[in-house]
Automatic annotation (TrEMBL):
Family (UniProt): Belongs to the 4-toluene sulfonate uptake permease (TSUP) (TC 2.A.102) family.
Subcellular location: Cell membrane; Membrane
Keyword Membrane in annotation: yes
Organism superkingdom: Bacteria
Protein name: Probable membrane transporter protein
PANTHER family: MEMBRANE TRANSPORTER PROTEIN MJ0441-RELATED (PTHR43701), MEMBRANE TRANSPORTER PROTEIN YTNM-RELATED (PTHR43701:SF12)
Primary location: membrane
Spans through the membrane: 72-92, 98-116, 136-163, 183-216, 223-243, 263-281
UniProt key word Ubl conjugation: no
Pfam family, one: TauE
UniProt keyword list: Cell membrane, Membrane, Transmembrane, Transmembrane helix
InterPro entries the record matches: TM_pro_TauE-like (IPR002781), TSUP/Inactive_protease-like (IPR051598)
Amino acid sequence: MRKLILLAIVGLIAQLVDGSLGMAYGATSATLLLATGVGAAATSATVHLAEIGTTLASGASHWRFGNVDWKVVGKIAIPGAIGAFAGATFLSNLSTETAAPVMSGILLAIGIYLLIRFTGWGMPKGNLGKPVRKRFLAPLGIFAGFVDASGGGGWGPVATPALLASGRMEPRKVIGSVDTSEFVVSVAASVGFIIGIGSAGISFGAVAALLIGGLIAAPIAAYLVRLIPSRILGSLVGGLIVLTNVRTILRSDLVDASDGVQYTWYVGILLVWIAAVVWSVRAYRREKAEDAADEQASVPA
C-alpha cells in the first residue's frame, strides 16, 4: 500500500511537470519504476497505460483553457502513434539484461538534455508566424513516438522543443497540443506492448496509482502552465532523471561498477545538479528584473 501511495504522488508530480513543461511525465515515472527493479518493457508499458488516462485528462484541461491547436494535433498524433508502436515492438523483443541499460541510456540522454536546455536557456522562444507544415510534423511525430515507447518517455522532450524552436506557435499552445496528441501515442504504445509482452510483469496497481495521481494534477498543471518558472523546474527534473538513471546503469550487469565508483559519480552529479539549479534561480530572477525594468521604461512619463 505504501508503494502505491508513493507511486500516486510520483504520478501527481510527474503530471504537474509534464503539464507545465509539455514533457517529462513518462521520463520521470519510468525512471522511478526502472530504479525499483521493474523490467524495461513492463516499465514502459505501465507508464503508457497510465498515460492513456492522464493524457486524456490533460488534453481536455488544455482544451478548456484554449491551449490546443487541433490542426497540429491532427498532423503529429498519427505519425507519433506509428513511431510509438514500432518503439514498443523494438523494446519488447530485447532481452531483460539488455533492455534496462538501453532504456536508462535513453532516459539519461533526455535528462541531460533537460538539464542543459533549461539551465542554459530556459524555455525556447521564437517569433510567431506561418502554420507548422505536415512535412515537418510527420517525421517529428514518428521519431518522438519511437523514442517515447522505447525509452519509457520522450514524446514531450523531443516534440515540445522542436515545435517551440520553429517559432510558429505560442508556447502554451505547443505544450497543450503536445500533451493532447500524446493520448494517441500512449494508446498505440500500449497496444504494442500488450501484443509484444502480454500482461506479464505489468503492475496494474502501479498503473492505477500513477493514473490517479496524474488525473488529480492534470487540471492544475493546465492552469499553472502560464505561471510556473519553467527554467527552474526543467533544471530540477533534468538533474533527478540524470542521477537516477546513472545509478541504474552503474548497477546493471553490463557495467557492474564498484561502490566507490558509484559514489564518486553520485557526488559529481549532485554538485553539478545543485550548481545548475542555483544558476537557473539566479537567471530567472535576473530575467524577471529585466522584464520589470523594460515595462517600467515603456510607461509614459
